[in-house]
Structure formats: structure tokens, C-alpha cells
Amino acid sequence: MRVLLLGGTGEARALAARLHPDIPVISSLAGRVPDPALPVGEVRIGGFGGAAGLAQWLRGNGITAVVDATHPFAATITANAAQAAARVGLPHLVLARPAWPDGDAIAVGSDTEAAEVVARRGYRRVFLTTGRSGTAAFRDSDAWFLIRAVTAPEDELLPAHREVLLSRGPYRVEGERKLLREFGIDALVTKNSGGAMTRAKLQAAAETGIPVVMVSRPALPAGVRVVNSVDGAVDWLANLR
Ligand code: NAP
């Protein structure tokens, strides 16, 4: 057995730690962030060159199973992995952490729809946490944005009125509450990432009565096998042995 574990998430690191050293695992990172948190065991960094490149890589590296534990919004690599595993005939699993319940949030299908809601509702001071690639849809907005991301978005993808806060979770409710207050935030825009690392902002927003605009997750490729926990992935791999 030799597993390719597509990572870049806390769940992927937790899974690598559970499998290592009993099951040979190569963790793969996109290489987007400087100084990434590294999983235990073997790690490779960088893209594969689309689904075809990944299929070739799987064959060339003697991989016998693929676990995709990438972020729920990393839709391209997830589609490529499903395609490549099918092409090579390998068992393939998606580990997708549970989504946050929408609750009272305004659920939207895309960053563009989120920007429309901001304009329509007249929000003026928005805490924008949709990540580096999520700012472009707000470029023409005349609201002010507090943009939190791990790496800085390019200037031309940013709205005119903004402050960029570079940081990496996990976050705590107290800190999030303080941020909302200090910056006079009147709306939170977030992806439905799920998980505990970045959930505190939702509680802080709820406590302070700040409306939340939540971008729903992209759909998973049709027919893929999915588990919602690291335990589920460990069990799936155990059954392959
Ligand atoms: P994406 O849009 O789905 O993928 C774009 C391209 O990046 C892929 O086609 C692939 O390049 C490469 N890639 C992505 N993940 C990879 C991986 N784990 N190993 C090797 N290559 C990878 O991905 P993204 O949304 O930019 O996310 C990139 C990474 O950051 C993922 O590993 C993800 O888990 C992590 N992350 C993403 C988010 C988010 O909000 N999107 C949040 C936290 C962490 P090739 O086509 O050349 O193979």
C-alpha cells in the first residue's frame, strides 16, 4: 500500500499522523503559502499539471490509493484527483470536514453573489474572510473591507477601501469579538469552510448581532466516496489492506 494524501488542511495533517509510519503516505501540498505547516512523513510540494499530470504521477510513483483531504473550496484539485484516480483505476476517497450549519446566515452560491448581497443590503464595513482568491468579486464595491488572508491578495484584486490583515488560524471567540468591535464591522462575509480553526468568527458575529453572508461549498464530483472525519478515512484505508 502506498497512499497519496492531498493536503493543505489540518485534517490531512491529522490523517498523516495517524497513518505514519504503518502505512506509507506521501502528503502533497500546493505550495501556495510560505512556511506551511508540514505533516509528518514524506511530503511533496507543487502542482502535478492537471488531471493528466496527476494520473501520470500516480502511475510513476506506485500509488495504490488516493485520499483527497484538501480544503472544501479547493475544487480544481478535487476534480482532478477524482478524474486521475478513475483513469488509473485506483481507490479514491474524499475527506470533507462537515460544513457549518447556515443558521441565520445569508447563504449564497459564490463570491459574486456575496458581493451583490453586500451592495443590496448597504453594508458599509465588512469583515471579508473568503481568502486571497475571494477578494476580486468585491473590487468595485464602495464599502470598506477588513480582509483577512494567509497571503496577501494582489493589489489589483482588492477593493479600493480596505485594510489587509495577514494571519493564519486558529482563532478564538474573544479575539474575533475584539476585531469586530475595533473595526466597527457591520457584516461578515465568509466561505462555509467548516471545522473548528476558523469557526470563532461565527460565534462572535452571532453574539454581536452582525449579519453573516456565507458562501456555500462547491459540489463534489459526482459519484465520489466521501467521509467526514479522519477516523472515517483511517477505516476506509484499513479496509483496503
Ligand atoms: P485548487 O484551486 O483546487 O487547485 C489549483 C491547482 O493547485 C491544482 O490544479 C493543482 O495544480 C494545485 N494544487 C492544489 N492543491 C494541491 C495539493 N494538495 N497538492 C498539489 N497540487 C495542488 O486549490 P486552492 O483552492 O488554490 O488550494 C490550494 C491548496 O491550499 C490546497 O491544498 C488546499 O487544501 C489548501 N487550502 C485551500 C483553501 C481554500 O480556501 N481554497 C483554504 C485552506 C487551504 P496542478 O493542476 O498543476 O496539479
How is the secondary structure organized here?
Layout lengths: L2 E4 L3 H10 L5 E5 L12 E4 L4 H11 L4 E4 L6 H14 L3 E4 L10 E3 L2 H11 L3 E5 L14 E6 L12 E5 L6 H10 L4 E5 L8 H8 L4 E4 L9 E3 L2 H11 L1
Parallel strand pairs: 1-2, 1-4, 2-3, 4-5, 5-12, 6-11, 7-8, 7-10, 8-9, 10-11
NADP nicotinamide-adenine-dinucleotide phosphate binds next to β2, α2 and α3.
Structure notes:
The protein has 2 domains: 119 residues, Rossmann fold, CATH 3.40.50; 110 residues, 3-Layer(aba) Sandwich (Rossmann fold). Strands 3-2-1-4-5-12 form a 6-stranded parallel sheet, with helices on both faces. A 6-stranded parallel sheet has the order 6-11-10-7-8-9, with helices on both faces. 31% of the residues lie in helices and 22% in strands. It starts with a strand and ends with a helix. The mean pLDDT is 97. Strand 10, helix 6 and strand 11 form a beta-alpha-beta unit. The protein is an alpha/beta fold and 241 residues long. The chain is elongated, with a radius of gyration of 19 Å. It has 7 helices and 12 strands. Helix 1 packs across helix 7. The structure holds NADP nicotinamide-adenine-dinucleotide phosphate. The site of NADP nicotinamide-adenine-dinucleotide phosphate has 23 residues, from strand 2, helix 2 and helix 3.
